[in-house]
Design goal:
Layout: H1 11-27, H2 32-43, E1 48-50, H3 51-58, H4 62-74, E2 79-82, E3 89-92, H5 97-123, H6 128-162
Antiparallel strand pairs: 1-3, 2-3
Helix pairs in contact: 1-2, 2-4, 3-4, 5-6
Length: about 170
């Protein structure tokens, strides 16, 4: 196989990358099958594969692919689309998947902040538990502001480096 730039694609090296990167994602907390499917999509030429292609490449069942894709979709790491002229679905990883995943995490952080505010009010702000919850809340508020600023800087850098495409 040869890529557009003329360099040969080494299937063994690609497979090794997929398994190694998936292992890193698992270590960071991603379930094993979604990590493998995500890594395979990330390493694919077009960033798009069908369920059958993923099953074959990873030597896993279509049901395992389905569960992994469902998980990845909920976390905004892949999207489903119809194969042109077919009823078959294929799965796509976008260039901005990390951005989308972190943006989704911002909403989770806001939910946590709300729960922590209720917790502080419930246990009392001046109690040891209240101070601990308030500190956790302050950290998450800080993190949310920093993420917003960081994501804005990333959008600028991404545009400069890669252009506007996904």
């Amino acid at each position: 196989m040869t890529e557009q730039g003329g360099t040969a694609r080494d299937p063994e090296a690609v497979s090794k990358f997929v398994e190694h990167f998936a292992a890193q994602l698992v270590e960071a907390g991603l379930p094993r099958m979604p990590a493998r499917v995500f890594s395979a999509l990330l390493a694919s030429e077009e960033g798009v594969l069908t369920s059958a292609a993923l099953s074959e490449e990873l030597r896993i069942s279509p049901a395992a692919v389905s569960g992994a894709v469902r998980y990845l979709g909920r976390h905004h790491m892949v999207s489903r689309e119809r194969e042109p002229g077919s009823r078959r679905e294929r799965y796509r990883v976008h260039g901005d998947q990390w951005y989308q995943a972190l943006t989704n995490r911002e909403a989770v952080i806001r939910h946590w902040e709300g729960a922590l505010r209720e917790g502080v009010a419930g246990v009392g702000e001046q109690t040891p538990a209240g101070r601990r919850l308030a500190e956790t809340l302050a950290f998450l508020e800080f993190l949310e502001k920093e993420l917003e600023a960081m994501m804005s800087r990333w959008r600028t850098q991404r545009e400069e480096r890669f252009g506007g495409g996904g």
